[in-house]
Amino acid sequence: MEEARKIMIKVGLEEGFTSHNTILISQLGDQVVAMDLLIAAKSGVRNYAMAVTEAGTPEIKEMLTRHLVEALDMHEQISAYMVEKGWYHAWDTNEQITLDLNNIDTALNLPTL
What we know:
Elements: H1 2-11, H2 20-54, H3 58-85, H4 93-108
């Protein structure tokens, strides 16, 4: 029990204490989930676009086109959210690389449990 308490203190989870590490873990977690969702949305857009070109009937093509538009809307919402949070810099490659390198440094410097 004492060892578990020591670990909790190390990451700031004991007695309602919020440490810098706890905040970093939370922010990185949110950012990682958002990026995974964005990647999945991109994949969905690509797959629907390909499917539209292969549709066998006008009805199927129309249905797939509707889904493609919905997937594009979802991608836009996710990317706008990430831009607002400062997690995604699609139009500034240097800024995105700097952010990615900072995230790597942060992840590598988190305490191990």
